[in-house]
Amino acid sequence: MVNLKDRLRKLYDASAAAYESKAGHAIPVNEDALWRADLAAALDCSVGRRALDIGAGTGVFTRFLAAHGFSVTGIEPSAEMIAQAKAQVSGAVSFIHGPAESAEQFEAESFHLIAARQTACCFDDPMAVFAGWYRLLVQGGCALVIEGIWTRQSWGDDVLIDGLPLSCVHTRATIPYFLRSSGFSVVRNDWLYSVNRHHGVSNGAPGSRYFVLASK
User: Which of 110, 153, 156, 177 is the most buried (most CB within 10 A)?
Assistant: First the structure.
């Protein structure tokens, strides 16, 4: 029996040093305004409050949230990724080395925003994860999921693709369905238009990035 979490952890440990140099992983300075424009509704809903970045990796989105007014905790299961993240830490940011799918280490109603950028595709039980988020959010808090229409070729690992429910979903309907089934109200489900145009990707085509914003 393949342990998917161990397989993912080893994959990210091996890629940590070069992670932000790969296309689509970092948020360069010249993309900051584009991400902010696309995610304005999410960033404005909880600025200045506590946020949790799930599967923080090297801290790309953790730093982005902190730069836009959040006090952020990033949680990441890869030790090598966490090491890279801590080396770049600045502002109101802290990192925890731990399982990204578990919410048990936090008290109920601890956060105003929970975000997962290119992480939900790695959840082996999305329903359980989103139910845990619901418990962690204050009433009126927001969940932000940023994903892409990924291809099998972009993963390059058939074991992970066929073991992870959200790895290669080619519709924007699935994540909202899981969120609604976990008690959330979906506020927005849309493409990252500015970011996708900048990356030269046609909106709606395989590889396009989108976001789902939901509230408790």
Answer: 110
* Domains held by the chain: number: 1
| Unique residue bearing structure tokens 């925003």 | 113
Task: Judge whether 176 and 135 are in contact, CB under 8 Å.
Answer: no
State pLDDT tens for residues 86-124: 998 877 899 999 988 877 889 999 999 999 999 999 999
Within 8 A by CB and 6+ apart from 192, the residues are: 35, 38, 39, 146, 208, 209, 210, 211
Q: What percent of the chain has pLDDT over 70?
A: 95
Task: Write out the residue range of the structural domain in which residue 188 sits.
Answer: 4-15+28-215
CATH number at residue 70: 3.40.50.150
46 lies in some domain: yes
Of the candidates 54, 185, 41, the one whose C-alpha atom is nearest the C-alpha of residue 123 is 54
Measured in Å, how far apart are the chain's first and last C-alpha atoms?
36
Q: Looking at the domain assignment, is residue 20 inside a domain? A: no
Nearest-CA neighbor of 57 among 93, 85, 15? 85
